[in-house]
Amino acid sequence: MKKKLIAGNWKMNGSLAANEKLIAEILAAKPGVAADVAVCVPAPYLQQVSALLAGSSVDLGAQDVSAHEAGAYTGEASAQMLKEFAVRYAIIGHSERRQYHGETDESIAAKAQAALKAGICPIVCVGESLEEREAGHTEEVVRRQLAAVVHTNGHCISEIVVAYEPRWAIGTGKTATPEQAQEVHAALRAQLRLATAHADRIRILYGGSMNAANAAVLLAQPDIDGGLIGGAALKAVDFLKIVEAAQ
Ligand code: PEP
To answer: Which of 92, 136, 147, 148 could form a Cys-Cys staple with 109, CB 3.0–4.6 A?
Structure first.
């Protein structure tokens, strides 16, 4: 059976002192045995958190990656650069990047390819807005977003992680019901099955106000293979309860 993955997305939060405390509290619980655990930290803290996690069972993730290898791309970081800090995962296509940074399905697919090429596992985010859900377009939207990544050639698609994050549930305290989430996860799994014989080993995470109270019921759904955790990843006690629910 594949292990579930619980990945924290710290977003633009943290400080040298706060990171040290949070990582120490997480590592004290020795997580990462029954479930895989990762923290995706802001770029300036990759070096610090990489050192703090060295030798532990918690993996390091970035929150974005450039589609380019090197050159005149001010502000960007390449997959090779991330690799130097032992980055294992990179969140790609988060709805906040689609919304505030104009990322498109095509640019996200290029980033996923760049990550895979460097041996970094992209956590590819898909998700619909409230208007799209209310108009009955949820599946169409997430399938289009995933298709862009699945249909780029090159690296094996079975090496990605997918995160279903309904935009209306991110940072709002509104969570998809387990049934709503499972329905979308099952549709994504079916789409992956058409693309690869290894679809069952691809982890499809749920993200969107997952917390210590609702994690167990969401993680019990057959196609929910873990969580991408925003707000609740900033408090060790909450994050660890979610990790516990994934075992
Ligand atoms: C996220 O940003 O990926 C996320 C799921 O945030 P939150 O858990 O705070 O809704």
So the answer is: 148
| Residue 209 in contact with ligand 1 by CB distance below 6 A | yes
- Domains (ranges, CATH) in the chain? 5-245 (3.20.20.70)
Q: Using the mean position of ligand 1's atoms as its centre, give its distance from the Cα of residue 197 in Å.
A: 30
Answer yes or no: are the C-beta atoms of 42 and 233 closer than 8 Å. no
Q: Give, using CA atoms, the residue closest to atom 2 of ligand 1.
A: 230
pLDDT tens, residue by residue, 10-63:
999 999 999 999 999 999 999 978 899 999 999 999 999 999 999 999 999 999
Q: Determine which one of 103, 128, 132, 165 is catalytic.
A: 165
Burial class (CB in 10 A: 0-12, 13-18, 19+), 156: exposed
DSSP string of 159-215? G-EEEE--GGGTTTS----HHHHHHHHHHHHHHHHHH-TTGGGSEEEEESS--TTTH
Instruction: Say what the pLDDT of residue 157 is.
Output: 79
Asked if 39 and 26 count as a contact pair (C-beta separation under 8 A), the reply is yes
